[in-house]
Amino acid sequence: MASKQQVSTAGKSAEIGITKWGPSEFTKQLLRMKETPSKKAAGPIKSSPPFKNEDVEIIIPVEPCKEYQFEMKIVSPQNAVVGKISDIFLLALSDLPDYIPPPLTSVIEVKFLAGGKQTVEAQKDSPVPEACLLDYLEAVDTFANRVEHVANELHSATSLVKQGQDMVQDNVEL
């Protein structure tokens, strides 16, 4: 599902995982109110060694379902910039390759209005905020699409193995 890409900073190199999925075809398909990009700054966040393992996770507080662009600077103890990575984008929920959406029944609630009409809202204890319902629904579609793709690939691979087994069995029966 993922390949590795080399990234180098200050003479050192590392591998990062790149998924084969790419952007989802479901991202931004549902209609939304026109929004201006968030002017709110996230950070700066500082994290110092020693780290628990070679993968460093930095948690940055952001508003739910807003788009952000980050820049990461790696600074020495003497405050010299050792490396800098620019244009790090916070992906849309449906573009996150390892996002597994919670079940619909734990997120949404259907309320019945007068005249037999319904409205969909986030449940009070939902793991997905109300502001993210459209992003969540697109992520559900993306997840279902990816599961179907993987199942079809496995079915194809299994079919090829079965054909090979049938040919061997035919030779044994002769």
Helix and strand layout, with pairings?
Layout: E1 2-9, E2 12-19, E3 69-75, E4 81-89, H1 104-107, E5 108-112, E6 118-122, H2 133-173
Antiparallel strand pairs: 1-2, 3-4, 5-6
What does this protein structure show overall?
By secondary structure, this protein is an alpha+beta fold. Helix content is 26%, strand content 24%. The chain is built from two helices and six strands. The chain has helices at 104-107, 133-173, and strands at residues 2-9, 12-19, 69-75, 81-89, 108-112, 118-122. The chain has a two-stranded antiparallel sheet. The chain is flat, with a radius of gyration of 23 Å. The model is unreliable at 1-19 (pLDDT under 50).
Any descriptors?
single chain; 174 residues; alpha+beta; two-stranded antiparallel sheet; two-stranded antiparallel ribbon; 2 helices; 24% strand; flat; disordered N terminus
